[in-house]
Design a protein that fits this description.
By secondary structure, the chain is of the alpha/beta class. It has 2 domains: 142 residues, Rossmann fold; 183 residues, Dihydrodipicolinate Reductase, domain 2, CATH 3.30.360. Helices cover 32% and strands 23% of the residues. It has an 8-stranded mixed β-sheet with strand order 13-12-11-7-10-9-8-14. The chain has a 6-stranded parallel β-sheet with strand order 3-2-1-4-5-6, sandwiched between helices. The mean pLDDT is 96. Bound molecules: nicotinamide-adenine-dinucleotide. The site of nicotinamide-adenine-dinucleotide has 22 residues, from loops.
């Protein structure tokens, strides 16, 4: 087998160039082609990178040079595309959220397992050095008992953002702030402090009256380990500030602001702590004020890992199975907001939340 893996991009919108740029920097992988419905953007991207353009997914999957597909379509289309790619024997990197229901998520995971194919998810914030530093400190027990794990996402999106494509204003497509924007940070809370045992969420639309979506979520989380947490997530708060992830335990506190460590304080100060406090490029935007204002380094890390995982026949660092609980947290928040009471996990799918 050729040791360089061929990648195809399904979708050529906002996130596609991040994958294309990341692939350019990866060892052992190369972009082979692009496919999107309404081919203007696909043609532009294919021309820019000097790669093939396909008009349908079936056509892309007939190309023997493609071994991996990045699924970059609107959220509600992920499931069918992922299933088709797996059925055609391709490894997959799917954008977040991997699917719109637990049933869909489970079907994907089972199909990948049956076919012995890798199925990774682009919740790329997990690989950020600042997040990894917090994760290692938790695993090492430096926080002691974790008391509080919070995510504060006070972002801003112009009203026009919701009208750049019909799916961005559709509940059914998963365009609300909870499952679309805050998904990354719900995922970090699960990754760092989860699993979550119970949620209570309230949702409203503060600044985008032209769409029938929540642009603001305020939620309470109870973690299974006894910690509590709050989630504030909004695209209504001009001008938008960097996300804060806060972990507070009996022996220390850490705050990640965007990609930076904003606070790193433990009772057992160690020599490496000064280096950890310097993590993060203060100039790097992290999507607080615009949908494409962020770097592609984290996608590069995720894609490089997937390439290595395929070669080494191991799980990628972010398999979809590890993101299933994040899907469940997001769905539970919608159920709680719709029903007006707390929701305990695990939950069953409730399709009415997308109606
Ligand atoms: N990881 C991140 O930080 C991040 C950031 C932005 C978006 N995303 C995710 O990426 C995905 C795409 O978002 P986007 O902002 O790029 O959307 P977009 O609307 O800008 O682009 C979607 C693309 O999919 C194509 N498409 C739509 N239906 C199709 C179909 N049936 N077959 C083939 N192509 C089809 C469109 O033509 C378009 O090229 C979403 O799941 C979103 O949540 C992730």
């Amino acid at each position: 087998m050729n040791s360089t893996l061929g990648f195809g991009l399904l979708g050529a919108g906002l996130i596609a160039p991040f994958h294309a740029r990341a692939l350019r920097d990866c060892r052992g992988g190369r972009l082979v082609g692009v496919c999107a419905r309404g081919s203007v953007r696909a043609k532009k991207l294919a021309d820019e990178y000097g790669v093939r353009e396909y008009s349908t997914l079936d056509q892309m999957l007939e190309d023997p040079d493609i071994q991996v597909v990045c699924v970059l379509t609107p959220n509600h289309l992920h499931h069918d595309a992922v299933m088709a790619c797996l059925a055609a024997g391709r490894h997959v990197l799917v954008e977040k959220p991997p699917a719109m229901t637990l049933r869909e998520t489970d079907e994907m995971i089972a199909a990948a397992d049956r076919a012995n194919l890798r199925l990774a998810c682009a919740v790329q914030c997990r690989v950020r050095p600042a997040v990894q530093a917090v994760r290692h400190a938790i695993i090492e027990g430096r926080f002691g008992r974790v008391f509080e794990a919070d995510a504060i996402m006070k972002w801003y999106r112009e009203p026009d953002y919701y009208h750049t494509d019909p799916w961005r204003s559709s509940r059914r497509s998963g365009a609300g702030v909870t499952v679309q924007h805050a998904f990354h940070y719900l995922d970090l809370l699960h990754y760092l402090a989860g699993p979550v045992a119970e949620v209570e969420g309230r949702m409203t639309n503060l600044a985008h009256p032209s769409v029938n979506l929540e642009d603001t979520l305020t939620a309470f989380l109870a973690y299974r380990n006894g910690a509590w947490g709050v989630v504030q997530a909004s695209t209504a708060l001009w001008p938008g500030v960097d996300v804060r992830i806060e972990i507070h335990g009996e022996n220390g506190s850490a705050i990640v602001s965007g990609e930076k460590i904003a606070l790193w304080k433990f009772r057992d100060e160690r020599a490496e702590d000064e280096t950890i406090r310097a993590i993060g490029d203060p100039r790097q935007a992290t999507a607080a004020s615009g949908p494409a204002d962020f770097g592609y380094a984290d996608h590069r890390t995720v894609i490089q890992d997937l390439i290595d995982a395929i070669h080494e026949q191991r799980e990628p660092v972010i398999p979809v199975r590890s993101v299933r609980h994040t899907v469940e947290i997001a769905l539970a928040l919608y159920q709680s907001a719709a029903r007006g009471h707390p929701v305990k996990l695990p939950i069953e799918d409730d399709p009415s939340i997308w109606a």
